[in-house]
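Continuing the series of single-chain predictions for the mutant panel. This is the parent chain; the variants come on the following pages.
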Amino acid sequence: MLKIVLKSKLRVIGRTMTHDWPTYFILGPVMMGVAFLLGRRIFKDFASEVGRIQPVSISEETAVRLAFAFLALKVFFNFLPLARRLYPTERALTVDDLLPINYRIRYQVFYLEQLFRDLPFFVVGSMILLFFGQTQMLLWPFTIWLFLPGIEIGFTLTWIHFWSPDRRQLAGVLFVMAFFLSVLPVVQFSWWADFFTLLLMPLGYYRGFKIWRYQDMGRVEQFMVRHQNHKNKTAASDLIHRLCQVVPKSIRPLLRRDLILTARNFVPHVWRNMTLLFLVLLAMTTRGTISPAVYCALGAFIMASTVSPLFSLQRPFRPMDRALPLSAEQVWRAKLYYARLLALPVPFLVFGFEMMLRPLPMNEGAVLCFTLFLVGLAVASLVGGSICEGDQRPVLQYIVSAFMSILATLFIAIFNPVMYLLIFPVLSSLKDSAITRLENEEVL
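Parent structure:
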């Protein structure tokens, strides 16, 4: 039975990968490898001698604390999406839920699916450790990747069974965990990790997947309905109206529509990106010798990358845009300003954290604020401007925009902020390419 289920899942994945396999297995690894090797060489050898960035270093204790903080945030913000997939409610009922499959087989298949979904976290964690030279810690990401799905499944099922799904209580638990992560000695982290693994994995397997997920199905469905209907529409509408006043009139309707869709959770990635931005700001407390411009570029890229899944999700509805008197350039500019607005607070947040942790004189602070603003604007512009370069595939667009963002950050932060002017010819080229692709899409 397990072989039959896995064969069906693999066929679904194979159909999905039919058109995108060069992106995932050839172009993606090549560009990530080039960016990794080039960035490591520049930061370690070139930037410290010619530029204004000191050699990058990070302690083993800092790496462990940041890793556990990231895992706590992942478990917290993955609670609701995981609950939607765990509980077979009427709105999420699939063919698999109607078949007489044993709960052990269902658990094993779901566990393997979670491993596949969490593979990017393992890859990114390993690359970060290699970038900072912490090769002795490479076993940690692999071990966490193997056992984290069981912890997430057990935690979600146990929490929902003993307590009703309440985001405030989850937020309280998150802050308590953040406090202990900052206070407890690092040597105790492994003991606590082993304790929660041995506690939650058997609960999720023997009780949660067998009994609890069926007993609590009604309560979870009611919670999902309340979560969808509970929105502060008035405040969000006023904020969106004010934000749209700063953009040209020709693209205000498109930008307003995109922001409303984001507020209505049409793009779930925005909450994940906000979580990652919070982690980036948290990492600034122990940034060592890393320049604040690096954190600003990373935060701006994370928030601006929300435009890629939005553009991909809107592709089936694009014929409605063609029925209106809208040009392809207006569509491209709307996405450009959308990425800029989402990333606009990032430079000021990074500057505020930097001044709060390491105060600078007024002159140096003003130069730093100006540099961070240019870095954030350049990264957001490149992410939004390259929206059509991936042929509506978010992964490919991430790779292309990340490579250009790294170069823009190096030129602006290391050499001179005047290098920001170089992005204008790049944006012009991206605009021409986007117009051509959108017009060809209309013909097709």
